[in-house]
Amino acid sequence: MNQRTDSDPSPAHILVVDDTPTNRYVLATVLRRAGHQVTEAEDGTRALEILAGPGPLPELAIVDVRLPDMSGFEVCEHIKNTPATAAVPVINISASAITVDDRAHGLYRGADVYLVEPVAPAELLATVTATLRYSRARRQAELLTERLHLLNRFTLALYSAPDARTLIGVTAEAAGAIFRSDVAVFLTTPQGTPLVAHTWTDPHTGENPGRPHVHNAPARAATSLRHTHTTGPDLPCAPPRLKDPAQRRVVVGRAKADRQPVVVVTSADAITTADDGRLLTQLTQASALALEALRSYSEEHALALTLQRSFLPESLPETARADLAVRYLPASERTEIGGDFYEAVTTPAGLVVAVGDVAGHSLDAAMVMGQVRHALRAYATEGHPPQAILAHLDHLLTSVRPGASVTLCVILIEADSDALHIANAGHLPPLIRNPDGTTRYVREHGPLLGLSLPHPPAHRVTVEPGSLLVLVTDGLVERRHEDLDHSLHALAALVGDIGPDPEETCTKLLDRLLPDGSDDVALMAVRVNAPRPR
Q1: Which residues sit opposite 62 in a β-bridge?
Q2: Interval 51-68: pLDDT, tens
C-alpha cells in the first residue's frame, strides 16, 4: 500500500501555459523527464478552460507572464479568485518581465513563485518540488482538519443512536464520508442479531437510497464475525476492491476483550497516511463504545422490566360483583421504564381497584411502584376506606421515599349496594360507561401523593349494574402537542362505541389509541355487576 506523507515526492500533473511553442516544449520535456504529467496551453483562455474542465485539476500551473490574450498576472489572479482552483499553486515565468517591480507585481497578484528565464533544469525541478511539497502539506492538513470535523460530528451521532441499526448506519455513513470510499460495517446487536451496513448500491433492489443499506448479515459473515482480525468477513455483492482481501483495509473495534466486535472495511487505497489509519481506528472504537453503551442500557432495561413485571399482580380476584380485565404495556426499548401499576383486592366491604403512576422513568421509579402497590394491598386488606388508603400511602412516601410522587386512583365497589367510593390523588379521572352507552368522567380529585397535603373524602357515585369502569395511566392518552382534554374526549367516545365487555374494551383501546411508546401504559376495565343482597 502506498503511504503518502506530507513530503510526498510522487510525480504531479502540471499545467504549462506559454504562447511560444519552443518554450513550452523545453519546459514540458524537462518536467516529463522528471516523471511529471504535463498538460500544455498556448494562451490564458485555453488555460482557464482546462482548469474549469471536468477532469482532475492540475496540482501546479507554470504560467508565462507575456501571453497574447491576457497577461500571466491576470491568469494567476483568476486562478486565485476562483474557489475551485484557489489552492492550485502558480509559478510565474518570464524572459522579459524580469525587473524587481515585475517580480513583486506577480507575487502580489497571486503567484507563489516567480522565475526569470532562462531557467536551469535543476532550478526548475527544485522549485517545482518545493512548491509541490508545500501545497501537498497544506492540502493534507486541510483534509485532516475536514476529516476531524466529520469524525467529531459523526461521533456525536454515534452516541445519540437509539438502537444498533441506527448505530451501524451512522458508522457506515461516517466512514464513507470521511474516507470517500465504499464501506462495509459489521456488528452484532445487543439482542444477538448480526447486522451489516454498506454504502454501495443494494444488489437486490438496484437502488441506492443515498444512505447506507442496513440488513441482517449473511450466515457466513455472521459466523466469522467474532474471529475476524485482518481480512474481515465475506462481502458478497461488494465492489471488486472490497471483495479482494488484499485490496481492503479492515479495522476491528471492541469495548471489551470478550465482546463481539465492530468491524469496518474500506478499500486499502482510501487510507493513504498514518493519520488516516488513526482516524479509522478512532471511528471504529467510538462505534464499539457506543454499541457497548446500548448493550448496557438494553441489559438494564430488560432487568428493570423483569423487576417491574414481578411487582404487578400475578392474577386478578374472581368475584361475582365485577368482571375485570387489565393490560400492561411497557414503554419502547428506547425509553426508560416507568412506575405504572394496577391492583385489585377483595375486602369485606367490597372490591378495591386501583391504577397509579410513579413520577419519573427509572429503575428507582419501578422500586417505588413496588413499595406503593404492596402497601396499598396491605391497607386495603386491613379494611381501610379509599381516602384512608391515600392518607397512609402519602405518609409512607414522605417517610421512606422523600421526594417521590405518585398519582393514584383508588375505588371501592361496595359489595351490597350500587355505590362506588372514588378517591383520586391527582390521577387521570376514571371513566364510567353506563349500560346505555353514555359515558362520564368523575373529575373530583385531591393532590398527588408525596406532598404531605390533606386528601378530601372519597367521592360517592352510584352506577347501574352492567356499567363499565375504565382506569388508565397517561401513557395511553397523553401525546406531545395534543390537548389532554381532546385525548380524554376521544377515549370516552371509543369506550362508548366498543361495548361493556372488559376484555374487548382493553384490546380495542390499545389497538385504536396506538400508544407512542414514550411511556408505560396501565389499563383496567371493570364491569360492575348487580350487588349482593344485604
Answers
A1: 16, 91
A2: 998 888 999 999 999 999
